[in-house]
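Our preliminary data section would be incomplete without showing what the modeling component actually yields. Below, a chain of 124 amino acids is followed by its predicted structure, encoded as tokens that our downstream tools consume directly.
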Amino acid sequence: MRPWIVAYSKLLRLLPQLFLIYPIGQGRFSRWYASRNLRYFQFHDCIPVEHNILMHPFHMLGRSWVFGGSLFKAMHGSLVTSSLIVETTENESLMNSVTGFGQEEETYNIVAPWLFWPIDLPIC
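Predicted structure:
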């Protein structure tokens, strides 16, 4: 199974737990959402309106760090994945060649992903 399928399937496993199993443990279905989370949503609706926290320079800086870091990790992960050298023989399977078990040559070239940065950065 592909890693992104596993990552997105965690949300599907979380939703039944959040909306079915947790209210059973609390003993009620009808008022769980309102009593637990309504104050949370009211708080998050009032604070940005009253204090204009979204336009604060430190908040903007933090958001740029978060989104920039996620962009960096996504680009690095895609470049690492694309630079895997896959060579199979009759005695080893595709899984063993990707992970590098039983190979004499290296599977991952540490220099290859950095060669694509000048090409990829103008696109972003």
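Residues 28 and 76 are 46 Å apart (CA to CA). Residues 57-82 form the longest helix (26 residues). Preliminary results of this kind motivate Aim 1 of the renewal.
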